[in-house]
Amino acid sequence: MTAYPTRAPRWKRVLDSDRSYRLLTFAVFAAVWEVYGTFWGGLLIPTFTETAAAFADLLRTAAFWDALWVSNQALLLGFACAVAVGVPLGVLLGRFRLLERLTDVYLNILLVTPMAAIIPLLIMSVGFGLLSRVILVALFAVVMVVVNVRTGVRQVDPGLIQMARSFGASERQLWRDVLIPGALPAIMTGIRLGLGRAVTGMVIVELLMVSLALGGLILQFRGTFNAAGLYAVIAAVLIESLLLIALAQRLERLIAPWASTHQQGKARR
Amino acid sequence: MIEISGLRKTFTGQDGAPVQALGGVDLTVRDDEFLTVLGPSGCGKTTMLKMIAGLQTWDAGEITVGGRPVRGPGPDRSMVFQNFALLPWATVLDNVAFGLRLKGVGKAERTERARDLIAKVGLAGFESKRPGELSGGMQQRVGIARALAVEPQVLLMDEPFGAVDEQTRRLLQEELLAIWEANRLTVVFITHSMEEAVLLGDRVVLMSARPGQIAEIVDVPLDRPRSSDVGGLERSREYVEITAHLWDRLRDMHEEHRAAPSEQAVR
Asked: CA B184 → CA A72, A146, A268, B151, distances in Å?
């Protein structure tokens, strides 16, 4: 910053921020959508303004908030389970080579299997209740968490482990002072990516398994050819996931600030 | 005092063939001596240092520090690493206090001692910075302060200035001399620089490779304190002669290896 003889004027800096570029692309997107919807949309593609109006209406209905609440119960519980199971599991796999060898195949299977395929299986064994939705959300999220945490633990600099040993660190101290903090950035990344998958799981389970809550609303609007309403619900899901991801990112920066200071402090201007 | 006798170690190489890293090393390091160890890469000097630190096992022989046999890391020894090995998430203060924290020293006391040492290595004012915000030279000052904070009897330094630029390296050498001259302790200092070995050491241990063995131990009869006039010292006749002698020996070692590659295979 000090390298510049004079600072750019305030309006210029505001205009040059990431946010204004994001707003710009959004405005272009909305305009194209509006034009397309007006001239070629027909019955099935609403315009941007119609969707926005439907979204505003949606926010005023009790049904929407109920749906949001019910959906998020599964999301919250399932994601919490995924983190509670995924983080310790990933840590163990990262630290003990034998465990990793034993489980690697199954993790890869989980990573590439289309989770939607096991929905019928879940329904047959657990039924239609909250439990099966929670399990599916957890299954969607847990693999991302495990894989990232495992990588994080394994990537902890062996030089640091040796250093701690040279100062007489016990196994417990090694975990507390070196391995866990060293893996923290990757753990947070795993949690953020897992969250994204959890949202996917939440919607898919409601679309394919139990027509209920947000997924149920989507199906209902589709059934009545209420295109604007359908788009509005989808927009609501998008907005929720964006908010959640932003929150996770902020948390990541708060908990592991050293991991991002390099790029942020130095690369940016 | 460090006593090393009959120290041997054979590793299994990548092709499965055994590689003799240390082939029977005998060495005595006197109390409060600054010993530098010089040798071509692969001569086992770092392996030997790690064994003294208790980080590496050996096949035969014995190491004692202050009369006690080495069975692992201990509070009487601390190490300074070539790549600094600082915790990137911890502040300078917490990095310097790390060894004290592991030993269970209370927060107030370890903070005070860490602050003391940070000032000693010239980093006062940087206590709350993280390693990523420091230059390489400053990072190694943190590494030195961390090693000294636990008040060891022996300081083990593994090419500590190998990863910093030339000017910084010279400054760090002078600073290390000044610190050591003010507060003596036993130092084993690994380096691949002849100049550094002569400038810092009371004696220079010259090692040869395959198998790692001590080829020669050279006394460095230069006056102390040396930190006040490093430039004059480097122009002195003894300094020039000893460095020239070390270079002759190192060059011979290279030529021997080139002349007789088959001999290693037989051994």
From this structure: 65, 50, 46, 11
Question: For A168, which of B74, B85, B88 is closest by C-beta distance?
Answer: B74
Rounded to a whole number of angstroms, the distance from the CA of B11 to the nearest CA of chain A is 19
B103 neighbourhood in chain A, CB within 8 Å: 167-168
Q: What is residue B120's predicted lDDT score, i.e. its pLDDT? A: 93
Q: What domains appear along chain A, each with residue ranges and CATH number?
A: 62-267 (1.10.3720.10)
pLDDT band at B66 (very low <50, low <70, confident <90, very high): very high
Looking at the complex, report in whole angstroms how far the Cα of residue B15 sits from the nearest Cα belonging to chain A: 22
Rounded to whole angstroms, the Cα distance separating B258 from B267 reads 16
Cross-strand bridge partners of residue B19: B11
What count of residues does chain A have?
A: 269
Contact call for residues B207 and B23 (beta carbons, < 8 A):
no
Q: pLDDT (tens digit, 9 = 90+) per residue, B127-171?
A: 999 999 999 999 999 999 999 999 999 999 999 999 899 999 999
What are the Cα distances from residue A236, in Å, to A55, A56, A58, B73? 8, 10, 9, 58
Q: Is the pLDDT of residue A266 over 80?
A: no
Distant-in-sequence, close-in-space partners of B47: CB < 8 Å, separation ≥ 6: B9, B21, B22, B56, B212
| Complex ipTM value | 0.89
B41 contact partners, CB below 8 Å, separation of at least 6: B192, B209
Q: Given strand B154-158, what is the order of strands in its sheet?
A: B77-80, B154-158, B186-191, B34-38, B203-208, B213-219
- Confidence grade of residue B20 (pLDDT, cut at 50, 70, 90): confident
